[in-house]
Design goal:
With 321 residues, the chain is of the alpha/beta class. Among the domains are: 150 residues, no CATH class; 57 residues, no CATH class. It contains 8 helices and 9 strands. Strands 1-2-4-6-7 form a 5-stranded parallel β-sheet, with helices on one face. The N and C termini lie far apart (105 Å). One of its GO terms (molecular function) is glycosyltransferase activity. Keywords: Glycosyltransferase, Membrane, Transferase, Transmembrane, Transmembrane helix.
C-alpha cells in the first residue's frame, strides 16, 4: 500500500514538471517569435500592435512620497557625514541663478513704494538680542509697514542669524517653520539675515532650509554662492554689538584719513584646522601692536590642544589682555 502511494506521488510530481516545462517553452518560443516579428517589421518600417504579454509589466519602483531630506528633521543632520553636509549645502542654493530682474517682483514696490514688512514674532520663539536689534532698527525706520499687503520687502521674525548647530542660539526645525508661512511664496521678495552657518570644523554655508528666491544678507559668504546684484555681503559683527550709540568718533572737519589711534583691529578665534585656518593663521604677519592690532586665540573647540602650534601660548596671552 505504501509503495503505491510513493509511485502515485512520483507520477504526480513528474506530470507537474512536464506541464511547467511545456508551458514555459510555449511562452519562451512565443516571446522569441514576437521579438523576431518586431525586428522584421522594424526593418520594413512597419509597426504592428503587440499582443498582450504573458507576464504583466510592472511600473518603476515606487519612490517615497516625501522627499528624502524631509523624512527627518534637521536636528539629525548633526550625525551625517561631511560629504552629505556639502551635498545638502548645494541644495540650499537652488536659486543660484536668481537676479533682481528674475526673482524679485518690482510691481509691489511700484504700487506702494518701498515698504518693509517684519513678520510678527511667534509665541514661544526665541530671538537673540542681536537679531532683535536688526528687527527693531527696521521697525523704527520710515520704510516699515505693519500691513503685508503694502509691503515690497519681507523680513522673517524667525532668528536666522546663528545657524551653527552647536550654538545655544540655534533655532530648531526652521525648515518647517519657514515653509508654513503663508506669505513665504518660495522666498520671493524676502531678505534673510545670516552671520554664522554650518558647524565647526567644516563651516558649510548651510542655513538649514531652502532660501528659494529670497535674497541673502550674509557674512563670510563664498564667491561661489554669492549672487551678484542680488545678495548682500555684510560684516561679521559681534553678538553683543550695540544697536546705536557708543563713544564719539575722532572724525573732525571731514579729515581723511580720520585722526584715530587704530587703523585696523581684529579679535577672534584662530582656526587651527578646517576652513578659514590658512587665513587667520597668517594674520600675525600684519599685526604690529600699534595701529594694526590683530589678536587671535587658539582656544576653539574641545580638542584645540591636540592641534596647538608654537604660537598658541603667546597668542592666547595677547588675546586675553
Amino acid at each position: 500500500m505504501q509503495a503505491k502511494k510513493r509511485y502515485f506521488i512520483l507520477l504526480s510530481a513528474g506530470s507537474c514538471l512536464a506541464l511547467l516545462f511545456y508551458f514555459g517553452g510555449l511562452q519562451f518560443r512565443a516571446s522569441r517569435s514576437h521579438s523576431r516579428r518586431e525586428e522584421h517589421s522594424g526593418r520594413n518600417g512597419l509597426h504592428h500592435p503587440s499582443p498582450d504579454h504573458f507576464w504583466p509589466r510592472f511600473p518603476d519602483a515606487l519612490r517615497p512620497f516625501v522627499p528624502w531630506d524631509q523624512l527627518e528633521n534637521e536636528d539629525s543632520s548633526v550625525h551625517i557625514s561631511p560629504r552629505q553636509k556639502r551635498d545638502a549645502n548645494s541644495s540650499i542654493y537652488k536659486g543660484k541663478k536668481c537676479r533682481m530682474e528674475s526673482c524679485f517682483d518690482f510691481t509691489l514696490c511700484k504700487k506702494n513704494g518701498f515698504k518693509v514688512y517684519v513678520y510678527p514674532q511667534q509665541k514661544g520663539e526665541k530671538i537673540a538680542e542681536s537679531y532683535q536689534n536688526i528687527l527693531a532698527a527696521i521697525e523704527g525706520s520710515r520704510f516699515y509697514t505693519s500691513d503685508p499687503s503694502q509691503a515690497c520687502l519681507f523680513v522673517l521674525s524667525l532668528d536666522t542669524l546663528d545657524r551653527d548647530q552647536l550654538s545655544p542660539q540655534y533655532v530648531h526645525n526652521l525648515r518647517s517653520k519657514v515653509q508654513s508661512l503663508h506669505l513665504w511664496n518660495n522666498g520671493r521678495n524676502h531678505l534673510i539675515f545670516n552671520l554664522y552657518s554650518g558647524t565647526w570644523p567644516d563651516y558649510t554655508e548651510d542655513v538649514g532650509f531652502d532660501i528659494g528666491q529670497a535674497m541673502l544678507a550674509k557674512a563670510s559668504i563664498s564667491t561661489e554662492n554669492f549672487r551678484p546684484n542680488f545678495d548682500v555681503s555684510i560684516p561679521l559683527f559681534s553678538k553683543d554689538h550695540p544697536r546705536t550709540g557708543g563713544e564719539r568718533g575722532f572724525l573732525k572737519f571731514n579729515t581723511i584719513p580720520p585722526l584715530r589711534k587704530y587703523m585696523l583691529v581684529f579679535k577672534g578665534k584662530r582656526y587651527l584646522t578646517g576652513i578659514g585656518s590658512d587665513t587667520r593663521n597668517a594674520l600675525y604677519h600684519v599685526h604690529n601692536g600699534e595701529d594694526v592690532v590683530l589678536l587671535t586665540t587658539c582656544k576653539h573647540g574641545k580638542d584645540w590642544q591636540k592641534h596647538k602650534d608654537s604660537r598658541c601660548d603667546r597668542d592666547n596671552t595677547e588675546y586675553e589682555k
